[in-house]
Design brief:
The structure is a single chain. The chain is an alpha+beta fold. It has one domain: Roll (2,3-Dihydroxybiphenyl 1,2-Dioxygenase, domain 1), CATH 3.10.180. An 8-stranded mixed β-sheet has the order 2-3-4-1-15-18-17-16. The radius of gyration is 19 Å and the shape is globular. This is VOC family protein. Keywords: Signal. Pfam families: Glyoxalase.
Length: about 325
């Protein structure tokens, strides 16, 4: 397929009449996001490790992450599936066939963001998505990153993105500059052969670059994830806040766009079960645990770290790797 045809196809799949409309959809999906390469994101003191989702139709959802994102199915049974790349687990799906689909105005997962190692990998994946007629919900240039948005079969949000070099990020007084501009699809596709879909599986360097959560109150969310967990604020605007470790754009995004005032999550619904923040530094993990306990958070000891529960019942595991 030609680059122009791919561009039109992508617009059609995003349900948008123009790139501007698709960028607007992405703006709603991320507020004003940004990025830093997986090599950069993985060198920070803390980083996102893996995500566990509760799903009604295990096979359908597992096949989607395998076929659309390109993850490898590492383990699979009638009750769970573990997927990842290069032997590293990134996603666990737990079968909950009786669960109710979590409503979008509840606290929980907004999206899981899969970070491509390079911009060319993102281009290859975009050709793959177009050739397989994957339904998209938006795409945009965020100045520090380029992103594509979609949803899995049960409505769990997904972002697939590539970061610009951190030297291009613009910081001012601890806040990083982000936008939701038009994604230059022809320029992105110039990096690969748009007529050939050669994205057979996720590249070995694919990681979860960041998590984006729906929360009921931004101030309470910041108090927990900044004051107690220890992530640093990088940006706040328009009902969203972004935090990171080691001056990454954000390892964690949070918003109240649909969920302002949301109460405790219902464990009988689908959606995010837990996600992990990992570190190689034992002293950092010990400091995190001390802050959590002093802050009155519900903390459970694990073999290699602790699990805490945020104000809405979302579980986050702080682990040493």
């Amino acid at each position: 397929m030609s680059a122009d045809l791919t561009r039109r196809t992508l617009l059609h799949l995003a349900g948008a009449a123009s790139l501007a409309a698709a960028a607007a959809a992405a703006a709603r999906a991320e507020g004003d996001p940004q990025g830093g390469g997986p090599t950069y994101a993985s060198r920070t003191p803390m980083r996102v490790g893996m995500v566990t989702l509760r799903v009604k139709k295990l096979d359908t959802v597992a096949d989607y992450y395998r076929d659309v994102i390109g993850l490898t199915v590492m383990e699979r049974s009638g009750t769970a599936a573990k997927l990842g790349t290069a032997g590293i687990a990134l996603l666990v799906l737990e079968a909950r066939p009786e669960a109710v689909i979590e409503p979008r105005n509840a606290a929980g997962l907004y999206h899981t963001a899969f970070l491509m190692p390079t911009r060319k990998d993102l281009a290859r994946w975009l050709v793959h998505a177009a050739s397989h007629r994957v339904q998209l919900s938006g795409f945009a240039d965020h100045l520090v990153s380029e992103s594509v948005y979609l949803d899995d079969p049960e409505g769990n949000g997904i972002e697939v993105y590539a970061d610009r070099d951190p030297s291009q990020w613009q910081w001012s007084e601890g806040s990083v500059k982000m936008a939701a501009d038009e994604l230059n699809i022809p320029d992105l596709l110039s990096l690969t052969n748009a007529r050939v879909a050669d994205y057979a599986k996720a590249p070995d360097g694919l990681r979860i670059g960041h998590m984006h959560l729906r929360v009921g109150d931004l101030a309470h969310a910041e108090s927990f994830y900044h004051g107690t967990v220890g992530l640093d604020p990088t940006r706040r605007r328009n009902g969203a806040a972004f935090l990171s470790s080691g001056r990454y754009h954000h390892h964690l995004g949070m918003n109240v766009w649909q969920s302002q005032g949301a109460g405790q999550r219902d464990g009988a619904t689908t959606g995010l079960a837990w996600f992990s923040l990992v570190t190689e530094k034992q002293d950092l993990l010990a400091a995190q645990e001390e802050r959590l306990r002093k802050g009155g958070a519900k903390v459970t000891a694990l073999a290699n770290g602790v699990e805490a529960v945020d104000p809405w019942g979302t579980r986050v595991r702080l682990l040493k790797v």
